[in-house]
Design a protein that fits this description.
Blueprint lengths: L3 E5 L1 H8 L5 H11 L4 E5 L13 E5 L8 E6 L5 E5 L21 H16 L19 E5 L5 H6 L4 H8 L6 E4 L7 H12 L4 E2 L4 H6 L1 E6 L3 H9 L3 E3 L10 E2 L6 H10 L4 H11 L2 E2 L5 H11 L10
Parallel strand pairs: 1-2, 1-3, 3-4, 6-7, 6-9, 7-8, 9-10, 10-11
Antiparallel strand pairs: 4-5, 5-12
Length: 311
């Protein structure tokens, strides 16, 4: 019998099994309770989804473009998740989607933005654990958020992190740099130490929301802080391929970072409209009561026959 299969890496299987509130467990249980054959299994290397089989596949951090697959992964901030036909982050279908703020309900967008700020900004929460102590900043700084090593980063970045650091050290504005919790390469760590010693940048481990609250712009390859900055009203500069580019300026080389920052500061962004469009409309909310209905709609949109997966 055809099934809806949810492919997860080995290190996620046990964690998901013990957490009934986790997206993938909710997806499996919700589909099963709705009468569909669904189960979680360990993701194999390469393409775990034969194009010609009768099953449908959700693949964690997949980049598969075939009719019976939706690629999944955290859409930067909890509890929003991708279910995308082409990939996630800089490879998602949202890269080429049209963001049209004028077509959105302004009141709904503002209400959504207010709920995000109440849940994340006011409570000083983020994807990774943050310091609870408040760290004061003078303000007027460029907030640079480094990202840890990994395949996702390497696929997205347009130039090396060390070149990004050298470029921001030449800015005429104060620069605050926060390394990634996962760590940096030895070369990045050494360069950052030298720049701090020379007084060209300030390094911090402060709470992300303290850093953003007085920033004039955020700079990252393509980080969740881009969206968190928008919650603060902080414009963003991206240094990588990203599906957040609709509401940011992209610097495609190190020498474009300075001009990109000035352009971002001068642009009248519609942050709440973008947050509403990107998170609420384009991705799945793991905490919403209509999660399974929306997941089934995503499956049906690929052309799959939902009745074939009924038990």
């Amino acid at each position: 019998m055809p099934e809806i299969l949810i492919h997860l890496p080995r290190d996620m299987i046990d964690a998901v099994a013990d957490n009934p509130n986790q997206f993938y467990r909710k997806l499996e249980q919700g589909l099963s309770e709705a009468g569909y054959a669904a189960r979680i299994l360990r993701r194999r290397r390469g393409n775990p989804c034969p194009p010609a089989d009768d099953n449908f596949h959700f693949v964690h951090q997949g980049l598969h473009r075939q009719a019976n697959v939706l690629n999944t992964g955290l859409a930067y901030v909890f509890p929003f998740w991708y279910a995308d036909p082409t990939g996630i982050y800089g490879h998602s279908s949202l890269v080429s989607a049209r963001f049209e703020p004028a077509a959105l309900d302004r009141d709904a967008a503002q209400s959504f933005g207010n709920r995000l700020r109440a849940r994340l900004v006011a409570k000083r929460f983020s994807r990774y654990d943050q310091k609870t102590a408040v760290t004061p900043f003078d303000g007027g700084h460029v907030a640079v958020f480094l990202q840890g090593p990994g395949d996702i980063l390497e696929r997205a970045q347009l130039f090396e992190t060390v070149d990004l650091l050298r470029a921001v050290a030449r800015l005429d504005r104060p620069v605050v740099v926060k390394p990634h919790p996962a760590g940096q390469t030895d070369q990045e760590t050494a360069l950052l130490r030298d720049l701090v010693h020379a007084g060209l940048v300030q390094q911090t481990d402060a709470n992300i929301h303290d850093i953003l609250s007085g920033a004039v712009a955020s700079v990252s390859i393509s980080s969740a802080v881009t969206l968190e900055g928008m919650m603060h009203g902080v414009p963003a500069v991206l240094c990588g391929l990203s599906d957040l580019h609709h509401n940011a300026v992209t610097a495609r080389s190190p020498d474009q970072i300075g001009p990109a920052i000035e352009q971002a500061i001068a642009t009248p962004w519609q942050h709440d409209a973008f947050l509403y469009w990107f998170l609420f409309q384009q991705n799945l909310n793991a905490g919403a009561p209509d999660l399974i209905d929306r997941a089934l709609a995503r499956i049906a949109a690929t052309g799959a026959d939902l009745t074939s997966f009924r038990r």
